[in-house]
């Protein structure tokens, strides 16, 4: 298998790097953050074709895949971008995957053109990373549905025009069976959206549904059968966010190296200290380890076996989280007290990497998922061999 970038992928990578370098430096990012402009460059993302990358030409897209979106995510990770690119791409790809052709024809063109933004609302208080945990109910009322409940910490929810909401149409709170997708508009009178700033600057929203009534057309995909597709979407989020983490780690490593080579002590740069040189080598290795891990994860999204995909994505998440913690903590330590001030980018990268390790399941949750998958495979193998 050739793991080198193609000519088109290299062109995309150079284009993203040029945009980040020329238009999205740290000062620009902080200015957007203070002004509350979390999606200041969204229309530019659309013009560059980034919103259309993973969609087929029939859908108005470019026909790329997870690797191409990952290349964009790595660049945005370097920039600490505030735009809800990851949240929008996961929700839009999920919509394209599960919705009827007529629904996609109505919503995808605007989403790919940057005229509307989507967010996936799945997590609830008390769920603790469990994808199936859902107490938000959708009860049938004639040919309509009444949705009641709440969703917590919806990534990109503060910027979204449409929400792809997971609601329970059957079963108990943790049952995998009985989940259904609904597409809801932000301006529905029975939907309350509470926006807030998160510690890493990206922001989120909580949604409350107060006897929210929608037509049957709002139901997306199979009735009671959303779990497998939701799990696919969350794995896609893990893959994309891993690339973002690589971009952030790479920028943090570069900033730390520059600091050690310019900051002098006793007339010599700090980087001349052999012990600190070894620490920088460790940072470089961690970044490259993560880079290879997220490339493998992106390729695993195309795996025919859901079990293989889940296992590969969990392995990648554990590896990236470990490296993110190491790079973030080491960079702050090498910068000293300056590393946690708001004036330097270092502390902001550290906050974002810390948030990434707690998103889409932490390392402990993914380790338990690998154990469950391996145990299930062992049981199946035992049954096949008559044990």
TrEMBL record:
One GO molecular function term of this record is: flavin adenine dinucleotide binding
The Acyl-CoA dehydrogenase/oxidase C-terminal domain sits at 234-372
Q: Which UniProt keyword terms apply here?
A: FAD, Flavoprotein, Oxidoreductase
Instruction: Return the InterPro entries for the record.
Output: Acyl-CoA_Oxase/DH_mid-dom, Acyl-CoA_Oxase/DH_mid-dom_sf, AcylCo_DH-like_C, AcylCo_DH/oxidase_C, AcylCoA_DH/ox_N, AcylCoA_DH/ox_N_sf, AcylCoA_DH/oxidase_NM_dom_sf
* CDD domains recorded: ACAD
Q: Which domain of life is it from?
A: Bacteria
Q: Which cofactor does it need?
A: FAD
Q: Where is the Acyl-CoA dehydrogenase/oxidase N-terminal domain?
A: 6-115
Q: Where is the Acyl-CoA oxidase/dehydrogenase middle domain?
A: 119-210
UniProt family annotation = Belongs to the acyl-CoA dehydrogenase family.
Q: What is this protein called?
A: Acyl-CoA dehydrogenase
